[in-house]
Write the structure tokens for this entry.
Amino acid sequence: MAYEYLKIAFSTTVVYFFIILALRLFGKKELAQLTTVDLVFILLISNAVQNAMVGPNSTLSGGIVAAGTLFIWNYFLKMLLYKSPKLDDAIQGKPVLLIYKGYVNEENLRKTRITFEELYEAVREHGVEEIKEVDLAMLERDGNISVLSDSFSKKTVKKRKSQRAVKQNT
């Protein structure tokens, strides 16, 4: 029985790090700008990897071992990222300059796979009408887009759609 739980812990560990790597490869934008398609994708991924983590063991204790393993790895990974800025940058990335003094950095838009339409939408959501009025726009590490305008004095942050939905419902 102990072997079965070790197997669940090992499988859960592999799946945890695979999902972190896959999300990192797909980019920050995907995390902050979840669409219906993205949400369905995430739900299906979680369902697909569940069997890989617990196998045929659908018992309460098997689920607790898998969940406990995820909590433990998540705790240790966060501690490691806190202590190692280089590893933190490698896993979570760095902020990316999108607009500086009214000029769009088209190369960074291509790298981050953000369209001009998405950038314009983000700027408007911050209450700025024209790109030329933006002093600085950054794609942050968490996938949010921050915008500074009015000579760098007015800062707004585009909240993730999920955060807005929660605030509207409360």
User: Anything to note?
Assistant: The mean pLDDT is 82. Strands lie at 96-100, 103-104, 134-139, 145-149, 154-157.
